[in-house]
Each structure stands twice: as C-alpha cells, then as structure tokens.
Amino acid sequence: xxxxxxxxxxxxxxxxxxxxxxxxxxxxxxxxxxxxxxxxxxxxxxxxxxxxxxxxxxxxxxxxxxxxxxxxxxxxxxxxxxxxxxxxxxxxxxxxxxxxxxxxxxxxxxxxxxxxxxxxxxxxxxxxxxxxxxxxxxxxxxxxxxxxxxxxxxxxxxxxxxxxxxxxxxxxxxxxxxxxxxxxxxxxxxxxxxxxxxxxxxxxxxxxxxxxxxxxxxxxxxxxxxxxxxxxxxxxxxxxxxxxxxxxxxxxxxxxxxxxxxxxxxxxxxxxxxxxxxxxxxxxxxxxxxxxxxxxxxxxxxxxxxxxxxxxxxxxxxxxxxxxxxxxxxxxxxxxxxxxxxxxxxxxxxxxxxxxxxxxxxxxxxxxxxxxxxxxxxxxxxxxxxxxxxxxxxxxxxxxxxxxxxxxxxxxxxxxxxxxxxxxxxxxxxxxxxxxxxxxxxxxxxxxxxxxxxxxxxxxxxxxxxxxxxxxxxxxxxxxxxxxxxxxxxxxxxxxxxxxxxxxxxxxxxxxxxxxxxxxxxxxxxxxxxxxxxxxxxxxxxx
Length: 543
Hints:
Elements: H1 4-10, E1 15-21, E2 29-34, H2 36-41, H3 57-65, E3 69-74, E4 77-88, E5 95-103, H4 105-131, H5 137-148, E6 155-161, E7 166-173, E8 179-184, H6 192-199, H7 207-211, E9 226-232, E10 238-245, H8 257-291, E11 304-310, E12 321-325, E13 334-341, H9 345-362, H10 369-389, E14 399-408, E15 414-421, E16 427-429, E17 435-437, E18 454-460, E19 465-469, H11 471-474, E20 477-478, E21 484-485, H12 487-496, H13 503-518, E22 526-532
Antiparallel strand pairs: 1-2, 1-5, 3-4, 4-5, 6-7, 6-10, 7-8, 9-10, 11-22, 12-13, 13-14, 14-15, 15-18, 16-17, 16-19, 19-22, 20-21
Helix pairs in contact: 4-8, 5-8, 9-10
C-alpha cells in the first residue's frame, strides 16, 4: 500500500519535487519524491534518480547550488519555484528540500502583452500630443522623425509629397538630431514603387525598399538591415514612413507593423493639418495685404502727405477704417479719401476693400468729389438689393467718407476739393498755430437713395495742414476712469501742438496722444490722413 505522504503529493495540483543527498554526507542530489504535476512540468525527473538525469540544467544547477528560488524556461514554458527545507538528520546534518513549482507561462505572456500594449498606447498618445497643434510642415516632419527613431526603428526616414515639384524628407536616427533635405519630384522616377507608396494606400511592394538605395537621403551610403516602407495617408499631402531595422518588422505583432501603420496615420493627419494651415495662412496674408491701407505715394510735387492707422483688432492688421492717396492724374490733381464702413474686423475690411475698388472704377467716368459720392451711394444700394434678392445673408453696406483731390498752385499753396457723407469734418492746422474746422456735412453713403453730400473747397497756404480722421479718434474712451471720449477739443489741442511739424509727424503725434488717452483699453479702428502745403522757404535759403 502506498504511503500516506505519496498519496498526499499525488493529490496536490501544485508541482512538488523533493530533492536531497543520495546518502548521508554525499554530494550527489537525487529526487526523493515527485508528484504527477511535477513530472508534467519537469519531464524526465523520476523518484530515486539523480537530478541531473532529468536533463534540466537550470533545475540541476539551483539544486546543487543550494538556492531557495528557481526560475527558468523549460520546454518553451516559464517555470518558477521555491525551495523549502523539510528535515534535518542530526547525525549527518543533511537536508531534504521540497520544491514547489508553478507554470507562469500564460501569466508572463499576459503581463508582457499588457506591458507592450501599454507602451504602445503610451507611445501613440505621446506622439499625438507632440504632433497635435504644431501647424508647421517642416517642424512636423522633424518631430515625426525624432519620435519614431529609437522607438519604431533605429533609423527613420519621413518623406512628404505635396502639390509642389519638391519632395521633402527628414531622416531621424536614435540619439542624433534630425537631418532635413529635399528631392526633386522628377528624381523619384528612379523609385516608382516608392512614389506609389507615397501616393496610395495599397500594401507596399517589397522592391520599394531596394529603390531607396539610390536616393540621396542617407548619410553613409545605402541602409543596411531590413527596410519597411509604410504609406503616410493624408487629405492634403501624402508621404511615406521608411523604417530601417536589424530584423524584419513583424507584420502580425501589435508593436510591429501595426504600430508603425497607426503612427503613420497620426503623422499624416498632423502633416495635412500643417499643410492646410500653411495654405490658409498664405491666403490670409494675400487677402490681408490687399485690404491693408496702401502705401502713400513716395513724393508728390507741391504736396506733403502723412498717415497713421490702428485697427481695433491689431492682430488682424485690418479693419473698417481706410484711406488712400492715388497717383497724380494727367490734369495735375492728387485724389485722396478716408472713410469708415459699418462693422469691425475682417468683414468690415472686406467691405472697405469693395468700397475702394468701386471708387477706382467710378473715377474712370467721374472725378468731381460730390458726384463720385452720388455714384458710390447708388452702387452700394444696388449691391445691397442684389444681396437681399439672393440666398446669401446680407450685411450693412453703408459707410462714412471724406474724399477729394489736391492741386498744388504756383504760389506754393494747395487747393483742396472736398466732399463728405456722414463723416466727421476735417481740421486745418494753419501755419500760425490756429486750428479751424472745415464746415462740411452729408448723409451716410449707401444708406438712402436720395442722400445728400456736402462739398467745399479749402486753400492750404504754405505750412498749412489738413487732417482727415475717423470717428475712432474722437470717440475713443479713456482718461482717468476710462469713460470719457477723447472728443474734438482734445483733438484740436493735439493738432495745435504740432504746428510746424511735417504731415507724417502730425499723424504720429496725434496717434501717440490718443494711445496715451486710451491707456491700453479697447478702441475702435483709427485712421488719420494729413495733407500739407510745404512751408515757404525764406528767400535767404535759396542760395
């Protein structure tokens, strides 16, 4: 009959192996007992047989060395165990050790899988954060190559194709700064499979990697190792992710090719966003440049010009106030205008651009300032009627304006013809320091079919300055409590302090005093335009 201890061991689900010396004082270790679970984990071990006969070197070494823990790969399985001393023969001092063994293969595999999944998710999350919001194509390329180098592959190449004739690339290497470069699109004729990978979502032909060897993108000759080409999809631009690894990138392991493909999607999204932002920024700059107040003519005989502009939204650089001085006409007049359309920001700037373009066209058939305002008034009202008849939402199209022309005279004076519609009247700063308001008024331009527009003439004697301004000057709220308007009296005082100053200095001085009054508070658009008759030159200075 089997012993009680043998029956107990057989009933245990945990693998148990009892080892000890073959004889008292001996050094050879044998298996004194082993249960069926132990035989399954360490096949070859048998009760009464030496431990080394089982063929498990790792277990034999730990038994001989007297260690208390065991961990090794046996037959493709991960085993762990601990040794527990069982009995002490007082005459020999020999010990028996009971080994409790456990198969942790599935546990370790799950732990490794979880760790790899966490690392994969963390990498993709960090990559998404690093790439999100960069909105610069070159910086996005460098970031994409830097993030992938050392994580996806020791050497990474990111290529980008857009609508241009140039294919940009950045090479990233673990522990080194990214290296950028460019290839002419025509040079990719020698690598048709690579270009197909950059412009399509189909699986990459393995020969595309061979074609890479001839491209001038490597620092020390063609890459050695295994090359994987992953398409970088995008809505605006397309590209490819080239990974150079020591061993082939496994296609069926989550942190192999699937990780590279997910990363490529994030890179493509970031590059498309950056390229779209670049296009929109360029479009915005072009439109903004067309809406900004144009430069004043560099020199006009017998007339000195000055201007200043400060939009309500200074980051946009444009607004609803506008001014313009046109080149001298064949008959000798210099046309000018200053106005203010309804609204603020880009919408108002677009409308001001339309007003200016309308005036350019109308000047081809009419040059009298008052008649021009009549024609512009009709044009704005007709445009509003067309908007109302269409599906597009309408917006107010009325404006206030002072326009006219300046003609220098032989005696050094300048004769101004002025017309206005709903705009604050200009001021004239005389050479003697007096400030005079030009009596001029009219209805809003583009508001009424039967609008009336005032007209007058002003003579600027040598040293006199006429200042046109928008209501953003007089209606600017500031002062100690931020509630008071700047007003006409302060503007007149500011002008009086500029006697003898050139036209440009007059505008800058008024804007400086106005800014101090505002004290950093919000304000409306501000536009200033000064026309000046040059000061008379004393006779003694002609020599």
